[in-house]
Each structure stands twice: as C-alpha cells, then as structure tokens.
Amino acid sequence: MAKVVRFLSSIRLAIVLLILIIGLSIIGTLIPQGQEIDFYRQRWPSLSEEILYLGFDHLYRSPLFLSLIFLFLLNLLACSIKQIPAKFQRLKGLSPEAFRSGGSLKNKKLLFRLGELLAKNPLKLKSFFQQQHYQVKVAQIEDKKYFLARKGLTGLFGPELVHLGLIIIIVGGLVSALFSQRITIALLEGQAERIPEKSFSLRLDKFSTEFYPDGAVKDWKSLISVIDNGQVQFQKTVEVNHPFTYGGLKFFQMSYGLDWDQVQVELEIKFSGSPAQYITLKNDSYHQIDERRLVRLLSFIPDFQLDSSGQVISRSAEARNPAALVEIHQDGQPLFSGWVFYYHPDLSRFQRRIGSAPEVRLRNFSAPPFSVLEASSDPGTNLVWVGSLLMLLGLLTSFYFPYKELRILIEPGREPLVTAFSRKNRESFIQELEGLTELISNTKKISKEISDE
Amino acid sequence: MNEFIFLLVAFFIYFLVMVLGFISLFKPVFRISRVSFYLSVTGFIFHTVSLVVRTIQSGQAPFTSMYESINFLAWSCVLAVIIFERKFRLERIAPYLWLIIVALLALASSPALPKEVTPLVPALQSYWLWLHVSVTLLGEAFLAIAFVVSLKYLLSQNKGLTEAEARERKEKLDLIAYRAVAVGFPLFTLGALVFGMIWASKAWGRYWGWDPKEVWSLITWLFYALYLHTRLAMGWRGKKSALIAVLGFLAALFTFFGVNYLLSGLHSYL
Ligand code: HEM
Q: Are residue A73 and residue A113 in the same domain, yes or no?
C-alpha cells in the first residue's frame, strides 16, 4: 500500500504521464476523429483494425486516454496531499520544531555569520530584513531567542494552488463529458418549437442575415420569444457571440439555412411564336398556363449532382448549382419533362422534349431562411472557471512571489541554530543573504568608526 | 500616413540592431549595446504606430489574418526582448533574437500572405478575440526567447573558452531560458487556454471541443509543464531542458502554422 502511494505521488510518474498524454494527443490530431468505420478501412487498410480496436477513431473518449487522465488526476491529488503537511509545518511561527526542521540551504559559513549577527545586534538584523520587505518576528520565550524573517507566504502554496486548480478543471471536464446536453433547434420565421424535456417553447419572430459589402456573412440575428405556460415571457435577440440563458439552458446562434422544401421558383416558358411567360411556382404544385396546357414543379435541388449510380442528389444545402425538375403537359400528354439549371440555361441533357415543346428557363428561386440555434447545458463549466482562476493565481504566486525564509534559534549553552529555505532559486537567495550580511557588517564598521571619532 | 511606411522604418531599424549585435560578437565595440537599446526602442515605437494606424483604419483587431498575426508576434517579440535586455542583460544572445524578429517580419511581408483587411466571420467578432490572441502571442514571444536561447545552448561550441567561461555562458543561457518560460508559461496559460475556453464557451456553447488547434495548444502547454517538472524532479538543466524548450516552441509554431495548413478544424479561418 505504501508503495502504491509512493508510486502515485511521485513526480516521475507525472513526467511519464505527461509524455504519454502528449504522444496520444498528437496521434489524435493526425487521425481524423469521429468518422465512419469505412473511412478508416479505406484510408489505412493495414492499420484500421488497430485504430478501431484502440478506439483512436474517438481517441479523446477512448478508455486508454481516459485512464491516463484518471491516473494523472490521482497523481496530482496524491502529490499535492503529500506536500501539504511539510508546508503547514513551515507556516507555524515560533515553535522549536518548525525551527529545527526548517532549512534546506547548505552554506554553513554564511548561516553561522547570520547567527553571530543576531546574537550581537538583533534589532539591526531585524531592520535590515524589514527593509527588504521581509516579515520579521523576534521574540524571547523563556530562555530561547527566536528570529524569523520570511516573505512570499502565498508563493509557498503556489504549486498546490496550480495543482488544485488543475484537479478542479479535470473534474469539471469529466462532469461535462457525462452530463452536458446539446440540442439543435432550427426555426423558420413565425415557427415555434417545444424544447425537449422542458416546459417552454421558443418562437422565432424575426430572422435576419447581415452581409459585408463583398457578400460575406457578417452576422445572424434571431428575435426569439420565450413562451412558457402559454404566455410570452420575454423577447430577446440572439446573435453569434451573444447567447441568452433560460430555464437552465443557454441558447446560441450557430448558423442558418434555407428551407428548400418550401422553395418558390420563377420559370420562363416560351412557346414558339408567342411571347415568354413568367410563372411562379411552389414545390410540388402546378399552374394552368391556358385551357390546354399545365406546368408542374416536381422537385428542386440547390446543389445538383449525379452520384456514382446516376441518381440525382444535392451535394450540399447551398445554392451552388440550383436545378428544378419541371413537367409541361398539353391535353394530358407530356410536352416537356426534365431538369432546368439556373447557372446552365442551355444544358438540355436531362430533358425530354416532344413535339412543340417550349423553351424553359429557371429565372429565379427563393426559399425561406431558418435560423439554427443550439441549446446547451453544461454543469461542468463553472468548475472549469473556478479551477482556471485558482490555477492562474497559483502560477502568479509560484513564479512571482517565491517563498523565502530565514530562522535563527538561540538556546543557552548551544550553538545558534540557523536555517534558510527558499522554494526556488536557491542560488539567488544565498546571494541575497550574503549581500545582507556584508551590508550589516560594513555598516557596523562604519558606525563604529563614527563613534570612535 | 501609411502603416507600411512605419513598418518599413521599424524593419530597417531592427535589421540594423541585428547587424550591430553580430558585429559586436566578434569585435566588442564600446557603447554599442546602449546605442542598440535606444535604436530598438525607436523601432518598437514605429512598429507600434504602424499597428495602431492599421487598427484604426480597419476598425478591428490587428491579428485576424496570417500576415497580421505574424506581424503582431514579431511586435510582441520586440517587446519581450526589450524587457529582457533591460532586466537581465542579454549581451551575446541578443543578435540571435533580433534575427528571429527580422525573419518573422520578412515572413509576414511574403507576397503569399494577403495584406488587405478582410472582414471578420461572425464568430470572430468578439472582444475575446482581442484578449485571447494578444495575450497568447505575447506569451509565445517569451517562449520564443526561451527557444532561441535554448537553440543557442544546444548549438554553441564555445571554442577558445576556458571550461569555467564556457560553463558560465551556458549557465546564463539556461537561466535566461527558464526566466523566459516563467513569464511565457503563465501568459500562454491565460491567453491560449483560459481566454480560449471562455471565448469558445461564448461563441459555441462549449469551452473545449478537442478541435486540432485546441489540442495543439494543449500539447504546447504540456511540453512546458514537462520542462518545469523535469527541472524540479530530476534536476534537469542545460541540454535536456533546452531540448524540451525547443520542442515546446516547435509545438507552438505547429499550432500557429501547421494546424491551419495541414489539419482541418473550426479554427482554420485564422
Ligand atoms: C499539466 C500539469 C501540471 C502543471 C501545469 C503543473 C504546474 C506546476 C507549476 C507551475 C509548478 C511550480 C514550478 C516552479 O516553481 O518552477 C509546479 C510544481 C510542482 N509540481 Fe506540478 N504541475 C502539473 C502536474 C504535476 C503533477 C501530476 C505532479 C505530481 C507528481 C506535480 C508535482 C509538482 C511538484 C512536486 C512541484 C514542486 C512543488 C514545490 O516546489 O513546492 N505536478 N507544478
């Protein structure tokens, strides 16, 4: 058991784990995550079984990665707990034990000089350390004389704060992984939708997309009404980077889309010998051109493509290659049937024309926009903020308020016991102490010379 | 008033400082380091004016395209070098740092990187963009100092020096690298990780998504955690420490360039 604890609290384990986590993280950025199984089989035919077995298709949720993180968490906990008793011992003021266990700087001569200086002139020593912003305590308790100078008390616990912050962040991450929820909601203007497992609905009252002069999207704004218990509670505009919170969920503006099912097209139809007619049609509807002739819109596709088997598909939801499937009848007999293209008006490969078929063109099209919102609830988030704050405070104090202390204990009939400790940068602390002792001795000489005169 | 004229003046001053620095490596010239210091501050002022002019004209943060980001990183490096020169006396190390700055600006001026201002996609319009990117790049500037100094440590031969002199030089390099990490690591933690998480949480409703850019900044950060703890636990100094500092910065560079061009993800608009 003691062995296990020693292993878990060792900083060597931390180093090994850091290296392993770095290595795995790199692998996770080289292998695309969360693809279909076939993707890996095609891309890495000889390695795909190993990749799938190890869970590297979702590496950051794989048992291997999670167990490393878990071990790292235990490591952090164990090593912080191990460090704490010694540090609290240091906090204690004027107790003989603290003085006996205090030091780690080994420079006998220097420490001896400091002991001497204290025996001769405690007040001078005190004022010199105070000038360097040390907290100084000098006391005589029973027959013992104590001198304690220190600074950077918060820096003593800097690494523990960093590690505690990290522990809280990792726990927050686990909480998020287990309990966070995300719902995508797509709303057309005027449409309302009930939020699953909640008592309220959202209604999109107005949706607008703002553009830059060059046509790039600048912002999306959704005016949302929150309807709870059949009543509008409030109205709010959601924009990218400006979410709102209601009922334990945060609502984000994610993107937008066009509802192609509700497309409206404008067709130009020209029979030979008569002027062109412009006809507006909805999807899956028809229009009577005259008593004998009728035009029907069967289908509309925003990004027309043929797949490998010759089926018509839409490659994306954007209007990159809009096409309409149109049929024109005369007296119940087909005259024209096929695809007309917005960007390729002369393409007739996908059309069948019989007899006096007209020229058909897709002049225009429009579809109602919908706003895509995302609702999320993530109980881990606040833990992550608290952990981050602690970690940053810890970094600040670790690096910029390093703890230093000097303790001197004089007991009758014994050599002075002098100990010095600095959490980091030992050499520069020794230099500082040497400088101080020199300064004190010199001023003594100077003041002696003055009084001699 | 054109930002590019100011930038050009700054560039020439930096170039001059670098050349003076290398000359003084071989032929110590009296007072040259003082002159270099004032020159570099002058260059920095010109550089700053150039950034301010661009920011006012574009009305958006001066680090939203590759050109702007490299330029801002170079500016941060100049600031970091000036601070370190002031506090720790870089002496023989300085010209190598100026070399990196000059190289960064030369890279920024490459014709492959468009210089005109492009409007921001919706997710980038946030004051967290300012905080996230500026603090991250500032932190990376200090990590760049650690990188250059560590490279120097690994590559320098110290021919013609006594053993004691060589050791003293190496110890100085090691100490400066550590001090640069001690500034750069907290700044990088604040800017890249904490501000990054806050912004992601505001824009996308999640503070962390294992996006390649996020993972690579985590990797960079873990390298520096490794740097600190190998020094603490195993007393690694010198060579091994220097190697980790070099690897850490290579990871930072990959986060900056590689992820955009080689891996895909949400962050690829930068
Ligand atoms: C990514 C994870 C970690 C980070 C960012 C981190 C950060 C830090 C920092 C900033 C310091 C102060 C360094 C200095 O003063 O030079 C430190 C010290 C330390 N860390 Fe970590 N740490 C991490 C993980 C760990 C783990 C897992 C252990 C477990 C063994 C550990 C053990 C220690 C110890 C023993 C110290 C010295 C404490 C002292 O001087 O009082 N660290 N850490």
A: no
Pick from B189, B250, B269 the residue to mutate for testing the A interface (most A CBs within 10 Å). Answer: B189
Which tokens belong to A338?
Answer: 């096929």
Instruction: Note the pLDDT tens digit of each residue in B178-206.
Output: 999 999 999 999 999 999 999 998 888 88
Q: Does one domain contain both A100 and A78?
A: no
Within a domain: residue A230? no
Owning domain of residue A105: 91-152+402-440
Among B194, B232, B236, B241, say which to mutate for ligand 1: greatest number of ligand atoms within 8 Å of CB: B232
| Ligand 1 close to Cβ of residue A169 (< 6 A) | no
Q: Is B140 helix (H, G, I), strand (E, B) or coil?
A: helix
**Whole-angstrom distance, CA of residue A376 vs CA of residue A183:** 6
Nearest atom (ligand 1) to Cα of B189: 5
Segment A261-288, tens digit of pLDDT = 889 999 999 988 888 889 999 988 899 8
10-residue stretch averages of pLDDT, chain A, 453 residues long: 85 94 94 85 85 88 93 93 83 74 70 77 81 85 83 87 96 92 85 83 84 79 85 85 84 84 90 88 88 91 86 85 92 90 90 87 89 88 96 93 85 78 78 79 56 47
Q: Which residue has the tokens 């994306």?
A: A316
Ligand 1 atom showing the smallest separation from residue A10 Cα:
30
d(CA A316, CA A319): 8
What is the number of domains present in chain A?
3
Contact B219 A15 (CB under 8 A): no
* A213 half-sphere exposure, CB direction, 13 A CA radius: 1
User: What pLDDT score was predicted for residue B263?
Assistant: 64
- Bigger pLDDT: B122 vs A44: A44
Distance from CA of B198 to the nearest CA of A (A): 8
A216 in a domain, yes or no? no
Estimate the share of chain B in helix, then strand, then coil, as percent rounded to the nearest 5.
Answer: 80, 0, 20
**Ligand 1 probe mutation, A163, A392, A398, A426, most atoms within 8 A of CB:** A163
Q: Does B197 touch chain A (CB under 8 A)?
A: yes
Instruction: Say if ligand 1 is within 6 A of residue A424 CB.
Output: yes
Domain end point (choices A84, A104, A136): A84
B197 contact residues in A (CB cutoff 8 A): 384, 388
Rounded to the nearest angstrom, the distance between the alpha carbon of A31 and the centre of ligand 1 is 31
pTM as predicted: 0.84
- Please report, for the domain that includes residue A431, its CATH number: 3.30.160
- Measuring CA to CA, how many Å separate A156 from each of A392, A394, A418, B229, B235? 15, 10, 20, 17, 20
